Amino acid sequence: METHIKYKTKQRDILIQYLETKKGVHITANDVCEFLKKDGIAIGQATVYRQLERLVDEGVISKYIIDANSPACFEYIGLESHGCAETCFHCKCEKCGKLIHLHCEELNEIGEHLFREHKFKLNSMRTVFYGVCDECQK
Amino acid sequence: METHIKYKTKQRDILIQYLETKKGVHITANDVCEFLKKDGIAIGQATVYRQLERLVDEGVISKYIIDANSPACFEYIGLESHGCAETCFHCKCEKCGKLIHLHCEELNEIGEHLFREHKFKLNSMRTVFYGVCDECQK
DNA sequence: CTAAGTGCAAAATGTTTGCATACTT
DNA sequence: AAGTATGCAAACATTTTGCACTTAG
Q1: Is the dihedral of CA A129, A122, B82, B97 positive or negative?
Q2: Residue B45: enclosing H or E segment and its boundaries?
Q3: More reliable by pLDDT, B6 or B122
Q4: Smallest Cβ distance to A120: which of B91, B123, B126?
Q5: Which of A15, A26, B7, B11 is the least buried, fewest Cβ under 10 Å from its Cβ?
Q6: pLDDT digits (tens, 9 = 90+) for B78-95
Q7: For A137, which residue in chain B has the nearest alpha carbon?
Q8: Which residue of B has its CA nearest to A106?
């Protein structure tokens, strides 16, 4: 919802490049900062946040809000909507905090069911299943 | 999680009483504080947060995280309310903020599927489906 | 040259925590 | 009496913002 004119900056390129290497993994804004710092690149955190926000708007990455007191997670999606973009669901363990990534046909049924029967258009990118994971059940 | 409430305090009663009057509406911790302040009751915000947290654990209310930078929303569910405690699912409209309660056999399948196939024990009390409601799709 | 992006540090926000006091049982 | 809950304020963590400076177009 901001300006339409966008500059291609060195920082933006580096950020996108890094995100691409993290396909299928959830990373936080801080993860990005830390990684870049290690590489001696060091992009200001404000810039990281601003660019991430912008990339979300552009649909290049998605943002997940897992919990009120956890940092937001981002994940590379890319321009083509394939793979995770359509079919990824997330489970968050209430005990250990682990985030589980699920690609499952059956779960896709949920979205269709909700739409068909309840006229609700599910946003699977944002929806998180809370519960207890395998290991924590022991 | 940790300690279970054992004592019945004045503050807790007032809080629950207020929450009950807000069935079907989502309110924030701050809403609670503000309301009580107006009534000259004034419960400390730390207490409000602590009690809300515990009421969530007890399943009396649900907590919804709508956005990273918005406060968490709470809603009264109640223990004895029409079997909701076991089978109720929630859909939250990302546009109008409306909260939809669903009692649905098919949705119950989700929990079973997750457990059977993915060994994840779903907490349906806490899980919220995000998406766009009927009306907002127009 | 102009508009947009950057980086720093400071502010804003929502929530949690330490600790002494008050209350429940 | 023993163990919790409360309330205040200070601490926290994440994210945003103000502003001077740099850079892309």
Answers
A1: positive
A2: helix B45-58
A3: B122
A4: B91
A5: B7
A6: 755 544 445 578 888 777
A7: B121
A8: B113
Amino acid letter for position B55:
L
Asked if strand D contacts A30 at the CB level, meaning under 7 A, the answer is yes
Tell me which H or E stretch contains B51: helix B45-58
Nearest nt to the A6 alpha carbon by C1': C4
Paired tokens of B86: 């076991």
* Distance, CA of B53 to CA of B14 (rounded, Å): 15
Q: What's the CA gap between B122 and A86, in Å, rounded?
A: 22
Backbone angles phi and psi of B55, in degrees to 5: -65, -30
For residue A19, the model assigns a pLDDT of 94
Q: Provide the 8-state DSSP code for B3.
A: P
Q: Kindly report whether the global pTM for this prediction surpasses the value 0.85.
A: no
- Select from A5, A19, A10, A99 the least CA-distant residue to A55: A19
Residue B98 buriedness (CB in 10 A; 0-12 / 13-18 / 19+): middle
Find, among B93, B84, B94, the residue nearest to B125 by Cα. Answer: B84
Q: Is A132 on the interface with B (CB under 8 A)?
A: yes
Question: b or e along A28-41 (b: 16 or more beta carbons within 10 Å of the residue's beta carbon)?
Answer: ebebbbeebeeeee
A72 and B68 within 8 Å at the Cβ level: the answer is: yes
Find the Å distance, CA of residue B50 to C1' of nucleotide D7. Answer: 12
pLDDT the model gives residue A48: 97
In contact, A22 and A75? CB cutoff 8 Å: yes
Taking residues A21-41, what's their average pLDDT? 89
Q: How many of the other CB atoms lie within 10 Å of CB of B58?
A: 13
CA angle (B8 as vertex; B7, B14 as ends), nearest 5: 145
User: What is the tens place of the pLDDT at every residue in B107-120?
Assistant: 788 889 999 999 99
